[in-house]
């Protein structure tokens, strides 16, 4: 706002606990003027929302921002319930703890295998940068019951559900290890 530039955070994927804080912007010393959220905010119910600072909100006239189902009561109840669970079950903290464990184990595996890969990300939004296209591994991981996708050109991305257990994390590590040493 100081420079007249609007800072907009798309927190559809990284928001609502995913990175270990409720919102990803909380990791940085900034406050967005506009924030958009969706996906996890409805706990499975399709809904998204936009939050703005008061200056932006005051500039909106009726009809400027429209949506077919916006603010429908069922969606609002779903968001309310999801917020209750997010807070009462400490979902951001769980994402931080489980994400740190997964990140640590991925880093150890890479080190043990003497690979020049890098682990990056925050909370349960993690990637392994292969330094090359990881598409083949992403596809073959399905044979081990792990769903991961390529992100960008060189990153294998893990975005596990918040309810992931320690055993599931071990499974992810075993799967990647087996695949990388070529055992089927
Ligand atoms: C899914 C997604 C969107 C689109 O959200 P809709 O609710 O389908 O409009 C926008 N940004 C990111 C980062 C997403 O992952």
What does the secondary structure layout of this molecule look like, with pairings?
Blueprint: E1 8-10, E2 34-37, E3 49-52, H1 54-59, H2 73-88, H3 91-112, E4 118-122, E5 125-129, H4 135-140, E6 149-151, E7 155-158, H5 166-180
Parallel strand pairs: 1-2
Antiparallel strand pairs: 2-3, 4-5, 5-7, 6-7
The protein binds pyridoxal-5'-phosphate.
In short:
This protein is α+β, with helices and mostly antiparallel strands and 184 residues long. It is 35% helix and 15% strand.
Relevant terms:
184 residues, alpha+beta, Aspartate Aminotransferase, domain 1, 2 domains, 4-stranded antiparallel β-sheet
Write down the CATH class of the largest domain: Alpha Beta
Distinct ligand kinds: pyridoxal-5'-phosphate
What structural class should be given to the helix and strand makeup?
alpha+beta
Number of strands: 7
Architecture of the largest domain in CATH? Alpha-Beta Complex
Mean pLDDT: 95
Strand order of the largest sheet: 4-5-7-6
CATH fold label of the largest domain? Aspartate Aminotransferase, domain 1
Alpha carbon gyration radius: 19 Å
**Portion in helices:** 25-40%
Order of SSEs, N→C? EEEHHHEEHEEH
Strand count, sense and barrel status of the largest sheet are: 4 strands, antiparallel
Distance between the termini: 55 Å
Number of domains: 2
Helices, by number, come to 5
List low-confidence stretches.
none
């Amino acid at each position: 706002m100081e420079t007249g530039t609007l800072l907009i955070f798309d927190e559809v994927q990284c928001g609502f606990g995913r990175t270990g804080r409720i919102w990803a912007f909380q990791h940085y010393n900034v406050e967005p003027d506009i924030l958009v959220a969706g996906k996890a905010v409805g706990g499975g119910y399709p809904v998204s929302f936009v939050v703005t600072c008061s200056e932006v909100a005051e500039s909106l006239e009726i009809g400027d921002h429209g949506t077919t189902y916006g603010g429908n009561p069922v969606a609002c109840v779903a968001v309310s319930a999801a917020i209750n669970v997010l807070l009462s079950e400490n979902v951001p903290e769980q994402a931080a703890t489980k994400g740190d464990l997964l990140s640590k184990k991925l880093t150890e595996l890479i080190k043990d295998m003497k690979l020049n890969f890098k682990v990056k990300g925050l909370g349960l939004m993690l990637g392994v940068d292969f330094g090359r296209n990881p598409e083949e591994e992403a596809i073959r991981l399905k044979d081990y019951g792990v769903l991961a996708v390529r992100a960008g050109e060189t990153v294998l991305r893990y975005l596990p559900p918040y309810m992931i257990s320690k055993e599931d994390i071990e499974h992810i590590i075993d799967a990647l290890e087996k695949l990388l040493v070529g055992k089927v």
